Amino acid sequence: MDEAASRLFDEGSFTPADSGTKSRDPLDWPGYRAELEKTQPGESVRSGPARIGGHEVEIALFDFSFFGGSMGEIAGERLARAMERAIEQHVPFILRTATGGARMQEGMRSLVQMPKVVAARLALSDQGIPFIAVLGNPTTGGVLASLGALADVTLAEAGATIGFAGPRVAEAFTGKELTGISHTAEAALSNGLVDEVVDPHEVHAYLTRVLNVLAHDQAVEAPSPPPTASNNEGRDAWDTVVAARAENRPRGYELLLEIADVLVELRGDRHGEDDPSLDAAIVRVEGRRMVALAMDRERVPGPGAFRKALRCIEIAARLGLPIVTFVDTRGADPGEVSESEGIAWEIAKLFEAMLIAPVPTLSIVIGEGGSGGALAFAATDVMLMYEDAIFSVIGPEMAATILWRDGTRGPEAAALLRLTGPDLVGLGVA
After folding, report:
1. Contact 385, 391 (CB under 8 A)
2. Residue 220 — pLDDT band, cuts 50, 70, 90?
3. Which helix (H) or strand (E) holds 4?
4. What is the pLDDT of residues 140-190, one digit of tens each?
5. Do residues 324 and 133 lie in contact, with contact meaning Cβ atoms separated by under 8 Å?
6. By the 8 A CB rule, do 331 and 302 touch?
7. Mind listing the pLDDT tens digit for each residue in 359-376?
8. Which whole-number Å values give the CA distances from 94 to 49, 135, 200, in the listed order?
9. Which three-class secondary structure string do you get for 212-236?
10. Inter-residue contact 366 to 327 (CB < 8 Å)
11. What backbone phi and psi angles, to 5 degrees, belong to 296?
């Protein structure tokens, strides 16, 4: 076990549980059996129970010094057994990779470990067991393209090489030199493929924070019930529009920071983008866990924001966590790039995912709700609105432009659209 792997868990808490498994030579590969005999009883994966920040976990650790951390039959078996033990003990599963991928000396007997470990991961999902992955240096090939890419929370060690194929393989396959925009932990973060890049010496602290967030809910006293009606009935509709758009209003993420005991950000859509218009996190508020989606009113959401939301809903469903959205946007991005990336399709998929989510859902309109791009985040079990928030089928200025070809009649359109909180409560929408 290398030094980086040994720093993950509390000192002295790891107990290997891999006895009785020994690599074979299914292809009669020249020299492979002799090399195995030199290294036995070693393997590229060691697994067993451990503690991180005092939390009980099941952990699996790759060792790059053993055949480049490659995944053969026994490595796949050890990973599957580790996930089975996590289910039995109902504790989070932690994976730390340092691997070049599938083991060539075992051929297809090695490659078929990819679906095997994915099947074991699906069993974790069925039982609501959290899965956290630490992508070490390097993490490439079949391990990344199976178990490594399927975690609920994924961090990469700073400076690590990360990619489907290693850099040399990629260059040989494509016949082109790499440009530097891929194959690194930092590139993976900027492309929305991991949630955080962490210095190897800080991984234990980061994992502790994640486990603190994911720990079982704490019993708390129910707060006093909030007022059942708004005090905003007398405000003019246009005044409410102006108030909802005020520059000094806090952004959704700022509100999230105010109420959260602790949070872990979920970055990226796992499709190559991390749209900054949506902040997402697993959050603990007054002892209770939730997945929070906070819109940034200063940016309009593009397709990546809706894909990120879909990913977060999947995490919430797997872990049985409520979903809370903070809605504040004048609408989805209608630009050419967004259109070419299918923004209407992404909005539709978010509606579908929100409506079938098997967990409680709550939306809070904290500023402006604009058209379907906002409503996809508010199609929840309960929708609440701030007193000075608005929600409309279209912005009042655009409505005036379409109906009367005069955008200056926005205040008149605002009154007709009935877009204030009291209006929407009266309409049965909020």
Report:
1. yes
2. confident
3. helix 3-6
4. 999 999 999 999 999 999 999 999 987 888 888 888 888 777 889 999 999
5. no
6. no
7. 999 999 999 999 999 999
8. 10, 11, 15
9. HHHCCCCCCCCCCCCCCCCCCCCCC
10. yes
11. -105, 110
